[in-house]
Structure formats: C-alpha cells, structure tokens
Specification:
With about 475 residues, the protein is of the alpha/beta class. The chain is built from 14 helices and 25 strands. It has helices at about 5-10, 25-40, 55-65, 80-90, 155-165, 185-195, 210-215, 225-235, 240-250, 260-270, 345-355, 395-400, 440-450, 475-480; strands at about 15-20, 25, 45-50, 70-75, 95, 110-115, 135-140, 150, 175, 200-205, 220-225, 250-255, 275-280, 285-290, 305, 310-315, 330-335, 340-345, 360-370, 375-380, 385, 390-395, 405-415, 420-430, 460. GO terms for molecular function: medium-chain fatty acid-CoA ligase activity.
Length: about 475
Amino acid sequence: MTSLLPALTDGPGERVALRFGERSLTYDGLAGAAGALAERIRGAGRVAVWATPELETAVAVTGALLAGVAAVPLNPKSGEKELAHILSDSAPSLVLAAPGTELPAAFGDLERLDVDASAVGGVPAEEFSDDDAALVVYTSGTTGPPKGAVIPRRALATTLDALADAWQWTAQDVLVHGLPLFHVHGLVLGILGPLRRGGSVRHLGRFSTEGVARELNDGATMLFGVPTMYHRIAETLPGDPELVKGLAGARLLVSGSAALPVHDHERIAAATGRRVIERYGMTETLMNTSVRADGEARAGTVGVPLPGVGLRLVEEDGSEVAGYDGETVGEIQVRGPNLFTEYLNRPDATAAAFTADGWFRTGDVAVREPDGYVRIVGRKATDLIKSGGYKIGAGEIENALLEHPGVREAAVTGEPDADLGERIVAWIVPVDPQSPPAAEELAGHVAARLAPHKRPRVVRYLDALPRNDMGKIMKRALVADA
C-alpha cells in the first residue's frame, strides 16, 4: 500500500507538524524520532501506548505505524480493573510512555520503553498490507468489559481521505483541539488526520476557551471538539470578544462523539456567524457521515455518507426502511473499507456485529431526510423509546428541552409503563436549582414543539448528568439509579 504518512518523507520538512504547549516537532523532527522508535520496536507484535496528552504519545503511535506494529492506546484515567482487562486481552509486548510518567501497578513487570522525542533515525519503508492492524482501540464497555476493535491500515487511510474530500482539508490547515488521545476522535482525526495531509496540529493539553481563542487568532484554521466543549464555548462567547473573533475567522468548526444540542449550534452561529458542522463515526467504523464544507450546515444532522461508505436504515425485522421521509426511525447499518476487521479475541462478538450480507450493526438509530442527510436520534438500546405505539428517538426531545430557558442540561430515557409500554422520562439539570421549571411546563413545552405523544410523562431533577471522558451522557447510570 502507499504510505499512511507520506509527509514524513516527501513533505514540508521544516513545517511544524505537532505542537503541545511550548513543545513542538517539525516534520523532519517527527520523522527522526518516530523512525528511531520504529527501529526499536519492529517485530514487537502489539505495543501499549500510555496515551497522555503529550508530544510523546503522538511520536509513539507514529513510530508504531512506521514499524508495522499495532498500537493499543490506553486511557491514563482507566480504573485498575479495566486497565488489567485491556492489558490481559491485548497482551502487548511492551508499553511506550513519556519519560518520567508514573505507570499504575497493573502493568506489573511489562517492559517499558520511554519515548525520546528528540531521537534521530531513518524512516523505514512501509511494506505492509492494507489489512494489517494499525490500532487496537477499546470500546467504552457499556454492556460488559471493553472490547478491542482491530482497526486496519486501510481504514485509517480511507476515513482520513474521505474527510479530506468532505472538509476540503489540505496541508495549509492548522488544527487546534484538546481531545484525549486514546479515542478515535482525538488520535485518528486529531493527530493522524493533520499528519496525513502534511498540515499541523496544536494540542491544547487541556481544553480551555482561552486556548481555543489564542490558537484560532494565531493562524489555526480548524477546531475539533465534543459537545461539552462547544457548550462551554457557547456560554463564554457573550463576554469574550477574542473568542468571538477566533471562531468567526476559523475555516471549519467540527463537533463529534455525541450530538451537539441545537440550542448551542444556534448560540454559536448567532455570536460568530459561523456554523459548527457535525460528523458521525464509531470506534469500529471510524467515520461514516459528515456535513460537507461546501454543503448546508444543518443543525441537528450529521450530514451525508462519506465517499466509499454504504449506509442504510433498517426496521426491527431487518428489512430496509422503504423511503427516506425524515420521520421513519431505523437502525443505522454501514459497510465499506472504513470498518474494523474484528473484536480482538472475540469471534462471537465479531460475528454478532455483522449481518449475513456484511453490514455492520451500529446500534444507533436515525432518520434520513429525502436529500440524504442523516439525523441520529440515539442508541437503539437506550434512546429508542416505544410509547403508545410510536417509535420515538430521545435526541429530538432532549433538543426541545434544551430550548427551555430554565434547562441547563437534559437527558431522556424510557421506563416501563403498563399502559403505554414505555413512558418518556426527562432528567433535568435546571439553570436555577432553587426554582426548577415544573414538570407540567416542560411537558407542554415539548408537546408544542414536537407532538403530544413525545412529551415527558416523568421529570427527574439532578445536579449534574453522568458523563464519560468524551462528554457522552451515560444513560445506563441514570436508569440504574432511578
């Protein structure tokens, strides 16, 4: 196959490839450091990467790609039990880490190799198959222990090139983000994406609106974030002219990993004149759809299928949704070269994830507009509510609730109901905890915007919603605590 990162050998040698705070590496510097590491780990099988938000993590993963070794990025905040499971399941031959980083006891006597970001070596020829494993990324494990999705080299190349097409992404782009580097969003899109194009990435280390404003006003052209980050941006914009200026001048603002509430879309657009675009992907599929840079940035949608991605909506009996009307809910199934090859050591789970004709069952439910735009309404397991004979997606109710001035955060679930089958439950974080909006008021608010059968029948008030590292609401925790 052709090189995953051609800019390391054919690109702008003196251009800054990576910047983390005050530390940076040019393409020549990255080629030297990653090349030296590749020589040391060639033939190592799988290697764990202690994925702290530092320069060394990017060097480690780049070196593994050059060596043809599968990298297993690890969340530095993992609990002991989860970390022990991942290490046992993936069986890495060693762990790559930044010098001076303290590793948990779960690593035992596993060999450690400190990553030297100043080392100098040659870039080896990439003589690997498209189907060779590039990464093993562990899923969040909401239905059991995390599973390792084996992502082949072809999937990285395919998804990044499809995004380059959709976003008009070039070597002149400078990306800024503060995403963690153990997930697809921050690592594949946020680090490998710029490197494949020959562009630059500036990692904030830790997300802050001040950092976003500084970098966008200093030449950065793109911002990647998750909804919690964009919510903080929307809250900060009214009193921060530098942030307004930075976002207004950005070429592309992209949100992913969860749905961005329409209310935040509109607040950002009103303040800056720029619309955030959304895309849709998973660990197992990388990226499936996106709003295009030259398309309509339609709030609440994730755009159209990317080049090379097949996408369909299916009914519960497995038949394809007959026509796309913007109302009929179905499960998203996808196929294409962007998909993972297997769950590591889990042939049963791998087989169950695919249909007989090769479509991957995402577990996400959506509607599709006549022009092809996809609007995700939630997860099949937690966000598809069957109430009074209707199939209702939680996402649109959450958006409606967030438009109420007394609602700061909202989540919607279903719970058993003898009459309706399931009743709609709204979990609300009020703007004023001392005077939350009444349940009847919220029900009427939703009914007026959507339809009477979509109004919440129960309202529960919380101080905060449980979220994971990527800002996704953990609805199973809500239901368990009910």
